[in-house]
Every structure is written in structure tokens, then in C-alpha cells.
Specification:
mainly alpha
Length: 150
């Protein structure tokens, strides 16, 4: 499995933002207000992934006081990290599309609230993507020093 490419993730964010913006041009007025609950939910997921990454890295490096980690568990965590990075990119794009749509309507109360919620949700999705990339990095097998026997 290859590491996630940040350029691909940015492309997904941009594509999802443009698609969402286009869809909202015709249907924004009929939608309810965005719920604020996405922000803490996504941030809790990001904290969990970052914490899992730090614990996994310590176990892979066999730091004192840790048990060795099962290879299958590392493979599963890597798959989770990769999936989370891509899902976070899609949702970040969706929230960015909302922000783009309501920028011209900020003088009205509902679009202003949607802009704040969508902006906060976008930021929390970016934090989730960073945490997923960190977890993916932590799951890498460390390289051996040249002088160490194999």
C-alpha cells in the first residue's frame, strides 16, 4: 500500500467543493440550517486517530514499557487512516462548497450561521485529514540502520 498523496487529497477537496457549490446554487434556499454537531464530532475523531498514532508508533519502535504490535493490527490501522483521509477530504470539500455558496449572502442570518458552521466543520475536517496522515505515518515500518545486522 502506498502512502496517501496530499495532492490527491487537495484535488478531492477542490472537486467536492465545486460540485457542492454547483448543487447549492439551485437548492440552497430549501435546505435547513447546517447542524453545528459535526465540528466536535470530527475533532473527537481526529484526537482519537492522533492518539492512536502516537501509541502505535511507540509500539512499533518497541519503546520501553510497550508491547510489540501485531502486524495485522498495523495494517488495519493503516487502512483506517487512508480511508479517513479520503473521507475527510470529501467532507472538507462539501463544507468548503457551503462556504463558497453563502459568501455573497452573509448579510442574512441563516447564511451567516451556515458560513460559520461550515467554516468550522471545514477546519475540523482538515484537522482530521492531518490526524489520518499522522496515523498513516506512524504505521510505517522504521528503516534499519546500516550497521545493524538483518
Amino acid at each position: 500500500m502506498k502512502p496517501s498523496n496530499p495532492a490527491v487529497l487537495v484535488g478531492i477537496v477542490v472537486a467536492a467543493a465545486l460540485i457542492t457549490w454547483g448543487l447549492l446554487q439551485a437548492s440552497y434556499a430549501t435546505l435547513p440550517t447546517l447542524p453545528w454537531t459535526a465540528i466536535p464530532t470530527v475533532l473527537i475523531l481526529a484526537i482519537g486517530e492522533a492518539y492512536t498514532g502516537s501509541l502505535t508508533r511507540a509500539r512499533i519502535l518497541r519503546r520501553e514499557g510497550t508491547k510489540p504490535v501485531e502486524p495485522l493490527a498495523v495494517a488495519r490501522l493503516t487502512a483506517l487512516a487512508k480511508a479517513t483521509a479520503y473521507a475527510g477530504a470529501v467532507f472538507a470539500g462539501i463544507f468548503a462548497g457551503f462556504v463558497l455558496r453563502v459568501l455573497s449572502l452573509l448579510d442574512l442570518p441563516k447564511p451567516r450561521q451556515d458560513a460559520l458552521v461550515a467554516g468550522g466543520s471545514f477546519a475540523s475536517c482538515v484537522v482530521l485529514i492531518c490526524a489520518a496522515l499522522f496515523l498513516e505515518y506512524c504505521c510505517r515500518v522504521p528503516s534499519r540502520p546500516e550497521d545493524e545486522p538483518k
